[in-house]
Design brief:
There is one protein chain. The longest helix is centred in the last third of the chain and has 4 residues, at 105-108. The protein is mostly beta strands. The protein is built from one helix and eight strands. The protein has one helix spanning 105-108, and strands at residues 2-10, 22-28, 36-38, 51-58, 64-71, 79-88, 93-103, 112-116. The protein has a single domain, classed as PLAT/LH2 domain (Lipoxygenase-1, Sandwich), CATH 2.60.60.20.
């Protein structure tokens, strides 16, 4: 297994944060992960203007090609995701996925989105 560091930046718009459960899926040229739950560190996770860091253990995915992120709409469902930055810790290589969009049924009609590089 390999280690990936992930930084998720929430937008600074009013009410941009969420308390819903957040999930991520990474796609690479070699493999892809399942949808992985990202447990919040504390009550301030995924709040407006914040950047939350996670470390995932996954097989070597190779160069990343796609990132999907979503939330389950259980609490404060509207969430504005700016970027997801992923670093493959073994090599230090990084990828930045620019979402720049709302995820929420009322705000966008969807709870998840995918961005390709």
């Amino acid at each position: 297994m390999s280690s990936y560091s992930i930084w998720i930046k929430t937008g600074e718009q009013a009410l941009a944060g969420t308390d819903s459960n957040v999930f991520i899926q990474l796609f690479g040229v070699n493999a892809r992960t399942d949808s992985i739950y990202l447990p919040p560190e504390d009550v301030f996770s995924f709040e407006e203007g914040s950047t939350d860091k996670f470390v995932l253990e996954a097989p070597d995915l190779g160069d990343l090609t796609r990132c999907c992120i979503g939330q389950d709409g259980t609490a404060d469902s509207g969430w504005f995701v700016e970027t997801v930055r992923v670093r493959y810790d073994a090599s230090g290589k990084e990828w930045t996925f620019r979402f720049q969009q709302w995820l929420g049924l009322e705000e966008a009609g969807t709870l998840s989105a995918c961005v390709d590089l």
